[in-house]
Amino acid sequence: MKISSQRSEVVVIGGGISGICTALVAARQKCIVTLIEKESELGGKISSKYQHPIDIRHQIPQVYQRESGIMDELWNLLFRFNTEGTFVGQSRVLKDWLNEEELVTCYLDTEVESVEVEKGRIQSVLSKNRSRGNKIVFYGKFFVDCTGIGKVAELSGLRGERGVDLNELQNGKGEEIYLSNQSTSCLVTIEQGIDAYSFSPPNWVDIKWEDNNLAAKVDLMKSLEKSLVGTHCITWQGPGKTNKIDSDCLALCAWDYLKNRSPMLKKFENFKLVSISSGTINAEKFHPLGEILLSLEDLAGNNQFHDSVALGRGSIPESFSNISSSRDSKQIPHPYEIPLRSLLPSDCKNLLLTGSSASATELSSRSLGCTAVSSQSAIAAGFTVAQAISQNRLPRTLAKDGYIEGIKNKLGRSNQLFSRHTLEDDDNLALSCRVNASSFISNLNDAKLKKVDEHVTDHCLLQFPVTSSVIDRIEIDILLVEKQELTVKIFEGTGFHNALPGYCLHSDEILVAEDCKCLSIEMNLEIKKTGWHYLEIQSSKNFSVPLFASGLVGYVLHSKRNQSISKKKYLSDFEPVVTKDPSPSHSPKIIVSPAPSVYEVSNIKNSYFRPNYLPQLWISKPSDFKYPEFVELEWEKTHDISQIEISFDSSFDFIYPEKPSPFKKKNFETLVKDYKLYYLDQNKKSVLLEEIFDNQLSFRSHVFDPVKAFGIELEILSTHGLDRAQVFQVRVYP
Predict the structure, then answer these.
(1) What's the half-sphere exposure (Cβ side, CA atoms, 13 Å) at 1?
(2) Alpha-carbon dihedral sign for residues 52, 559, 457, 566
(3) 539 has a pLDDT exceeding 90
(4) What is the torsion angle, in degrees rounded to the nearest 10, for the CA atoms of residue 624, residue 628, residue 632 and residue 638?
(5) In CATH terms, are 3-162+285-413 and 429-440+599-733 the same topology?
(6) How does residue 239 score in pLDDT terms, banded at 50, 70 and 90?
(7) Of 361, 358, 314, which is closest to residue 336 (Cα–Cα)?
(8) Strand, coil or helix: what is 515?
(9) Which entry of 94, 316, 649, 666 is 20 to 30 Å from 7 by CA?
(10) pLDDT per residue over 314-361, tens digit each?
């Protein structure tokens, strides 16, 4: 058999979201990249074959939890181009996204068979095209294992282990937990017939759906609630070796339950199972030993690392520690840091690891392998290999003080969160300028909110920002159908980014008349710290909280969880009521006196490009852009400038649904659409630098020939639907 060869600077193995992000970043840093994927489509776990969620809401108790930066590009692409709202459409968008990069060559249906290692370096990988049968040797300077199962690391003969580290858990139930967390999945298609159909399972179906894990059972019910007809993903997480349960056995086991014993069996009388396709995922992975091994203690224990290059928010196994659980996993109170050393195997100089292939124990790797989390370590890997190539250094040397700052700077400059602390950007000239704006919102009354809904409840939590040292009064729009007594409590925020209600600052019982439309709470409350605060309202009777369209960042209604239905335990008894489409969430109206100073133009100078413990952005007054809204930055003297970076608002409370969906809106409404950039020349005359129409990105970098400038002007002409301008950051560089 003739064997061909292919050379590039970076060889990425695995075409899931991790491999795609690695390849994109490296290519944009001018590296020549080859991507190898064993399946015939891109996406990995989120492809049409496996149909896993691209994201999961509320893995940490924080409203504004979604990843930013490069992943924002993907959300926008999915809104616009996955018009059918399917997994096939999603994979197509991923392929188009990758094909836009000229320096990336993609090989689908190509599986790595062996790895050549010499003196601690990978020289090449040998792959076979499964459809054509030909073999290709891929040579590269650096290789990145994005397989999710540590395949390249294992084929390289690196140190590591398969399965679970039984010493990881104190309770001695490691094997039991490991087996219960394994999963086998398949896809089934259900159609409705004319007549009633009976079903009896064959003898070789030796498992019962009732023995399956609760999480897997709930997931199927959720899928069926949306529509009985169509394709559904069925997962087995019950007892026994999952690799011995094939797709047919699993599908017929579930069908037996639905047709014969489920509460829905009457509904399924006329339905039939028309197809079964394999979607098996082998949960057992190879775990290479890296420069550092991430354990569950690292994820849950708030551990910090000098070389942190990514943040993860994936939940951890339920059986570990005493953290509240979410079905079979635990919600942690904060995102965890992922150090670069965990992406570097200890005994290979030119291999990097991402996602669940990183150096981590079996149980902690499950959190690292969540789609959104794996994208973050992959982006860090892409910047690392690019830095290693440009500086002719080994990746492990870049993890040291004095070098890691370069990678962190690249991450921060692309709006990636890489640690729980921001990096000081001394080169940013915007830090020393005076700022001015056309207008800004000082309180909710400026926002011209339009009522669109009412949330009926007897117990809720309202989140709002506070920046003053005292609260004199709080006014809440509220509707009552009968006279009742309300219990109101005010809490300061606690935990990472004040994401949870903490110490109770104020408590009161208020008798409210039935015709009440606005609840006013008078107080003289001393505030100990700025950030999110929470108002809890409880009654023995129902009341309504009006919700308003185009809500302001930071004002959030949290509804009481129904524990009896969900059977879940979280760090908070409440969950935020947020948008399910790319428009701003509907928010309650809370007027705090004195008004918090949170939307001033000075925010564009700070080091935050997204909400954290405060909104952190500039918002203009609503105007529907009858006249352009603008931001001005001006210095005392001229500076030579050649780059301007802008971070627009892309509705960080929005989380992409677990299953692809068609969206009527094709972009974030909050995103600036049309704008112009000017600089002030030596005579302080405005000179046009660039004008952008139909912007689709939350982060824009403008590079131009150096000019001497007294300042710059950002003129905003329109958004994708919002009646006001919203900007997080403007950065200017020499």
Answers:
(1) 11
(2) positive
(3) yes
(4) 160
(5) no
(6) low
(7) 314
(8) coil
(9) 94
(10) 777 654 433 333 344 566 778 899 999 999 999 999 999 999 999 998
Helices (H) and strands (E) in the chain, counts: 13, 35
CATH superfamily, region 3-162+285-413:
FAD/NAD(P)-binding domain (3.50.50.60)
125 against 658, higher pLDDT: 125
**Are the C-beta atoms of residues 186 and 234 closer than 8 Å to each other?**
yes
Round the average pLDDT of the chain to a whole number and report it.
87
For residues 83 and 658, give the distance between their C-alpha atoms in angstroms, rounded to a whole number.
16
Query: Residue 249 in contact with residue 204, Cβ under 8 Å?
Result: yes
List the beta strands (DSSP E) in 513-661. 518-526, 531-549, 556-560, 574-576, 590-593, 618-619, 629-648
* Alpha carbon distance 382, 102 (integer Å): 16
Burial class (CB in 10 A: 0-12, 13-18, 19+), 227: exposed
Spell out the domain ranges in the chain.
Answer: 3-162+285-413, 183-278, 429-440+599-733, 449-593
Largest CA-CA distance found in the chain, in angstroms, rounded: 88
Q: Is it the case that residue 165 has pLDDT exceeding 80?
A: no
Coil/strand/helix, residue 69: coil
Buried b (16+ CB within 10 A) or exposed e, 105-118: bbbbebbbeebebe
- Neighbour-count burial of 367, counting CB atoms closer than 10 A to its CB (0-12 exposed, 13-18 middle, 19+ buried): buried
Domain boundaries 449-593, CATH class: mainly beta
Mean pLDDT highest for which of 282-296, 299-313, 452-466?
452-466
The CATH number of 429-440+599-733, from 2.60.120.340, 2.60.120.260, 3.20.20.70, 3.40.50.620, is: 2.60.120.260
